[in-house]
Specification:
single chain, 9-stranded antiparallel sheet, 37% strand, disordered N terminus
C-alpha cells in the first residue's frame, strides 16, 4: 500500500509540474491490483450494519458485502453502500476542481464536506463528474461521502441494467475516482475527425473563454516527433466549440491490421502565454457503411471477425486492470479476430486504449438488455458514452441498446457529440442498413447470402454454451459469410465464461447454471478447444489442408484473406519432423529439416500457391508443419500434415524378442481361454466379446467388445481354431450392422483384430467400442490430432503429433482443467491407454480413425434440449469411423449446416484393423 501511495503521489506531483496541464489526483486506487481503503457501511446482506473498510475500486460483493445477483434480478437485492474518505488538498484557489467517477453501480450520490456535489447519477457504466470548486477546503483535509444504491430509483435504469439483464449485477464504485484540477479557462474535451485522406478536424470544447484567446494544435507521432507544422484558430465565444482544421500528406492510416496512432497537443494561449493544454491520441481512418454493399475502412471492404466481451474477472467482478485489458485483446488477436463487441455496456476506457494500440475494431454499446432507458436518463448516458469514447479510432459503430432494448428517441443523439457520424445500430434487428440478426441458423445464412440486401453481420452468433457453438459449426457458417455480397462479419457469443468466485460459498465458481458458461476461454482465460478452431478458420492466411500423399509436390494452395496486408509481408516457416513411438517416454518431435519460405506477392483477396521446395527426403519423415507469421511476427497459425499412413506405422513394428511359445487354449462352459506370449486372453462364448487379459503382473480389464456402436446385436456364430500356425477366433452377429470380428493370435506379434460392419442408415456415430473401467484409467498418449477433443463440426484447429493427457473429468464451462480428457479425438494412429493395471497400446491401420475416450460428464445445469450434449456410444473406448456433431444453446446440430448433420450411411461394408499390444515390447524396426 505504501508503494501505491507513493505512486499516486508521484503522479499528482508530476502532473502538476506544469500548472497549464490538467492535474489528476487519484482518490481511489487505479485498478483491481492497486486499491485504496475507504470507510464503508453496507446496509444489507453480508457484513452489513457496521462501519468497516473496503478496497476502492471494487464491487462490494467480491469484497464480502451484500448479496450476489445474476441478472433477471431474481433476488431483488437492493442494499446501499455508504463510502467515506478523507483527502488532503493543496492551494488550488485559482483553479477549477472536478471530481470524476469512471463507473459506479448504480445510483450515486456524492457529498463533499457535507454538501451534495450535484444530482444523483443514474447508470452504472458511465463516466460522470461534478464541479466541486466551491465545496473544497484548500490546504486542508476534505471529506468525501458517497452513497451508492445497488437498485436505481429510476425504473428504466433497473429494466435496462438489472431486471432483464443476462449478466452479473454487482454494486459499488468499481472504477477509479479522481480529481481533475484545471485553470479557470480550460479545454474540457475534444472530438477528433481525422480521415484517410489526411484531413484533420477537431472540435474543441472549452469553459470560461474571454474571447481573446487563440487555439493552437500540433500533431505528433507518439514518440513526440512533430508531424507537420502547428495550426491555430482564433477563439469565437459565440460557438459551442472551436473547430481546428488541417491537412496532412499521406499519413499512416489506422486499421486493425496496422494500428497507426498519432497524438495532438491542443493549447489555449492568451496574452500572457499558455493557459491550458491537453494531449489526445487519435488515428487517421475513414469508416463507411455502404448500404447494399458492405463495411469499408479506408476505402477497403472489411469483414469483422469478432466476439462479445464482458468486462469481468472472477475475483473482482467488473473491476479490472491494465494487464487484463491487454490479455483479452491479445487473446482475441491470437484467435485471428479483428473485432470485439462491448457487451452490454461501455468498457473501461483503458480497454479501448488497448484496442486502439493493438488493433481491434470495436462496437461500443449503450446498456439496454432487452429493455431501454427512458429518454431523460438515456439522453444523459448517450452523451457520457460518446463524449468519453469519441476519439478512439477502434470504434466503428455505436450500439443503441441490445435485443429490443432500443430507445429509438436516442438514435440521433450520438451524432450530436460525434463529428465522425458513426453509424448507430440496433444489435439483433435490421436497422439503418444493417442486418445484425442474433443466432441465425444455417438456413438463414444461406438465405441471407442469396437475397440479403443489408450489410450482414450478426452481433451475436455461434453461442458457445459449455463446449458447443463458438468453433463448432463456424466453418460452414463462415463459408456462407464469405459468399454474402454484403457480408460484414460476425461476433461469437462470447469471449469468456462469466463465472464469479463466490466469497459467500467458500470460493466456488458460480456461472449461474447455464446462464454464463458461454466462453471460448474460461473465467481466468483458460483456452477451450474452440479457441484453436476459430484461430484456423479465421486465419487471414487461409489454407484448407488436404492430406499429403505420394504425389505431393510441395505446393500448397493459399488465399490472402487480409484486408490491407500483402502476403509478402508475412513469413512462412516449415519443419519436417520424426515423431516418438508409442513406447517412448517423451512426446516431443525431432526436427530433421526446416526452412523459411519467402511468401509470394498476393494482394488481399488473391489466391496462389506456397511452393515449399522440400528436400527429396521429405517422405522419410512423419509430419510436416507449416507456420505463418504476420507482419508483426506473431504466429497466425500452424498447419500440420501426417506423412506416413497408419498402416506404415504398423508395418514398422518389429516382432517381440521374447521367447515364442506355442499357443495354448482351453475352454470352460462360459469362456474360451487363449494363452500367447505369456498373456492369457478370456473370451465370453455367449457374446463373443473379450472379457479380460491376464498378465503375470496383473489383469487388464478390457472387456465387452468389439460392439458395433449404437447397434443392438446378438451373437450368430462363434468359432475358433489353429490356422497356419496362428490361432483365430471369429464372431459374427445378427442385427442391422451384421458385425463380424476376427481375432488373430501369433507368437511374437501384437493381437490383431479385423472387423467389418454395415451401416446404411444415418447415425450419430459409427464404429466399434470396448469397455474399460473409468476409475482405473489414469491417462492416455496418442499419435493423432490434439491435444483437444473434437466434434464432427469442430475438427479444425488441432495439430498432428504425439500428445499426452492425464485423466480429468472436466466439464467445459463448469471446471476448467483443459484440455478435456473425455471425448472424441481425431486422426488417431495409435493410443496408449494408461491405467492402474498395466498400460496397453492399440494401433490402427485405418486413416481418419476417431478415438472415443469415455463419455463426457453431463453438465450440472445443462439445457433440456440437449443441444450441447451430443450422443456418445455406450462403450468406454471406441474406434470410430464417424462421430457426433454438437449444437449451440439455441440451435440443435441439425440446424447448423452440412458438417453438423448426422453421418450418412455407407453403401458398402466398413472394414477396419486394430492391433493390441498388451506386452509393451514391440519396437519400431
Amino acid at each position: 500500500m505504501k508503494k501505491i501511495f507513493l505512486y499516486l503521489l508521484f503522479m499528482s506531483i508530476s502532473c502538476s509540474a506544469m500548472s497549464q496541464e490538467t492535474i489528476i489526483k487519484y482518490l481511489s486506487g487505479t485498478d483491481k491490483d492497486h486499491t485504496i481503503q475507504w470507510d464503508f457501511y453496507c446496509t444489507g446482506g453480508r457484513n452489513s450494519g457496521k462501519w468497516t473498510k473496503i478496497s476502492v475500486p471494487s464491487n462490494w460483493e467480491l469484497q464480502g458485502f451484500g448479496t450476489y445477483n445474476y441478472g433477471h434480478d431474481k433476488n431483488k437485492a437492493n442494499e446501499q453502500g455508504l463510502y467515506r474518505y478523507f483527502f488532503p488538498t493543496n492551494n488550488w484557489s485559482d483553479k477549477k476542481i472536478y471530481i470524476v467517477f469512471e463507473g459506479s453501480m448504480t445510483d450515486t450520490k456524492v457529498l463533499i464536506n457535507g454538501k451534495q456535489a450535484g444530482p444523483v447519477h443514474q447508470g452504472s457504466f458511465y463516466r460522470f463528474k461534478y464541479d466541486i470548486t466551491n465545496l473544497i477546503k484548500h490546504n486542508a483535509q476534505n471529506l468525501l461521502e458517497v452513497t451508492v444504491d445497488k437498485t436505481s430509483a429510476n425504473a428504466s435504469v433497473n429494466d435496462a441494467e438489472r431486471r432483464n439483464s443476462d449478466f452479473w449485477v454487482f454494486g459499488g464504485i468499481f472504477r477509479p475516482v479522481y480529481l481533475e484540477i484545471v485553470p479557470n479557462t480550460f479545454i474540457e474535451r475534444v472530438a477528433v475527425n481525422a480521415k484517410d485522406d489526411g484531413s484533420f478536424a477537431m472540435d474543441v470544447y472549452t469553459q470560461n473563454l474571454k474571447g481573446n484567446e487563440t487555439f493552437e494544435a500540433q500533431v505528433q507521432k507518439l514518440n513526440g516527433e512533430n508531424v507537420g507544422k502547428p495550426f491555430s484558430v482564433k477563439a469565437d465565444t459565440s460557438n459551442e466549440y472551436q473547430q481546428i482544421k488541417a491537412n496532412f500528406n499521406r499519413p499512416l492510416l489506422w486499421s486493425a491490421e496496422f494500428p497507426n496512432l498519432y497524438q495532438v497537443i491542443v493549447k489555449i494561449k492568451g496574452k500572457q502565454g499558455l493557459i491550458h493544454q491537453i494531449k489526445q491520441k487519435f488515428g487517421f481512418r475513414t469508416v463507411e457503411l455502404r448500404v447494399n454493399d458492405g463495411l469499408y475502412v479506408n476505402g477497403t471492404k472489411i469483414i469483422m471477425k469478432g466476439c462479445n466481451r464482458h468486462s469481468f474477472w472472477p475475483e473482482s467482478g467488473r473491476t479490472l486492470s491494465h494487464g487484463i485489458q491487454i490479455m483479452d485483446v491479445k487473446l482475441m488477436k491470437e484467435m485471428n479476430m479483428n473485432a470485439v463487441r462491448m457487451s452490454h455496456y461501455p468498457p473501461d476506457h483503458n480497454f479501448l486504449d488497448v484496442c486502439d494500440s493493438l488493433g481491434l475494431y470495436v462496437l461500443d454499446e449503450l446498456t439496454g438488455w432487452q429493455a431501454k432507458y427512458d429518454t431523460v436518463v438515456g439522453r444523459k448516458l448517450v452523451k457520457e458514452l460518446v463524449v468519453r469514447d469519441v476519439n478512439h479510432p477502434a470504434i466503428l459503430f455505436w450500439d443503441n441498446g441490445n435485443e429490443g432494448g432500443f430507445n429509438r428517441g436516442l438514435d440521433n443523439d450520438y451524432a450530436l457529440y460525434d463529428p465522425q457520424k458513426r453509424t448507430v445500430i440496433h444489435p439483433w434487428e435490421k436497422f439503418n442498413g444493417t442486418d445484425t440478426k442474433h443466432y441465425p441458423d444455417y438456413n438463414y445464412m444461406v438465405k441471407a447470402t442469396e437475397t440479403g440486401q443489408d450489410v450482414f453481420f450478426p452481433t451475436e452468433f455461434m453461442h458457445g454454451l459449455y463446449d458447443g457453438g463458438a468453433g463448432a459449426g463456424l466453418d460452414d457458417f463462415w463459408v456462407q459469410m464469405m459468399k454474402h455480397p454484403h457480408g460484414g462479419g460476425g461476433f461469437i457469443w462470447a469471449l469468456l465464461d462469466e463465472a464469479v468466485i463466490r466469497t459467500d460459498k467458500n470460493g466456488i465458481y458460480d456461472s449461474d447454471g447455464n446462464h454464463a458458461p458461454d466462453g471460448i476461454v474460461g473465467p481466468h482465460r483458460e483456452k477451450e478447444g474452440s479457441f484453436y478452431t476459430i484461430k484456423e478458420i479465421w486465419s487471414p492466411v487461409y489454407i484448407n489442408p488436404k492430406p499429403i500423399d505420394g504425389n505431393f509436390d510441395g505446393k500448397i494452395p493459399v488465399e490472402n484473406r487480409y484486408a490491407f496486408t500483402n502476403l509478402n509481408q508475412c513469413t512462412f516457416k516449415w519443419k519436417l519432423v520424426k515423431l516418438p513411438v508409442a513406447l517412448a517416454k517423451n512426446t516431443a518431435p525431432v526436427v530433421t529439416g526446416k526452412g523459411i519460405y519467402s511468401a509470394p506477392d498476393l494482394k488481399p483477396g488473391q489466391k496462389g500457391f506456397l511452393n515449399l521446395a522440400l528436400p527429396s527426403s521429405w517422405k522419410k519423415n512423419d509430419a510436416l508443419y507449416l507456420t505463418a507469421y504476420g507482419p508483426d511476427q506473431k504466429e497466425i497459425f500452424t498447419w500440420s500434415w501426417a506423412i506416413k499412413s497408419p498402416i506404415d506405422i504398423v508395418h514398422q513394428l518389429a516382432p517381440s524378442p521374447a521367447v515364442k511359445l506355442a499357443i495354448k487354449t482351453e475352454e470352460t462352459d462360459q469362456s474360451l481361454i487363449v494363452k500367447c506370449d505369456g498373456n492369457t486372453y478370456y473370451f465370453d462364448k455367449a457374446t463373443g466379446y473379450i472379457q479380460k487379459v491376464v498378465k503375470a503382473t496383473g489383469t487388464i480389464s478390457l472387456s465387452g467388445g468389439p460392439v458395433q456402436a449404437g447397434v443392438d446385436a446378438s451373437l450368430k456364430s462363434f468359432t475358433h481354431g489353429v490356422h497356419n500356425g496362428q490361432y483365430i477366433i471369429t464372431a459374427n452377429y445378427d442385427g442391422t450392422g451384421a458385425l463380424g470380428a476376427k481375432w488373430t493370435f501369433a507368437p511374437g506379434h501384437p493381437v490383431k483384430l479385423e472387423y467389418q460392419y454395415t451401416q446404411q442408415d444415418d447415425a450419430d456415430f459409427m464404429g466399434i467400442t470396448f469397455n474399460y473401467p473409468e476409475e482405473k484409467i489414469t491417462g492416455m498418449k496418442w499419435l493423432g490430432r490434439g491435444p483437444y477433443r473434437v466434434w464432427k463440426n469442430r475438427l479444425k484447429g488441432e495439430q498432428f503429433g504425439v500428445w499426452h493427457k492425464a485423466y480429468n473429468n472436466t466439464i467445459t464451462g463448469e471446471t476448467w482443467g483443459y484440455p478435456e480428457f473425455k471425448g472424441y479425438h481425431a486422426e488417431v494412429n495409435w493410443v496408449v491407454i494408461e491405467n492402474m493395471e498395466s498400460p496397453f497400446t492399440v494401433y490402427t491401420e485405418d486413416k481418419n480413425m476417431y478415438l472415443q475416450m469415455l463419455q463426457p460428464a453431463r453438465e450440472q445445469a445443462a439445457l433440456a434440449n440437449n443441444n450441447v450434449e451430443p450422443a456418445f456410444p455406450q462403450g468406454s473406448i471406441g474406434f470410430l469411423n464417424a462421430i457426433s456433431p454438437i449444437g449451440t444453446k439455441f440451435q440443435s446440430a441439425s440446424e447448423m449446416g452440412p458438417q453438423s448433420q448426422k453421418n450418412h450411411g455407407y453403401s458398402k461394408p466398413v472394414k477396419g484393423t486394430l492391433w493390441f499390444d498388451f506386452t509393451s515390447t514391440y519396437q519400431k524396426k
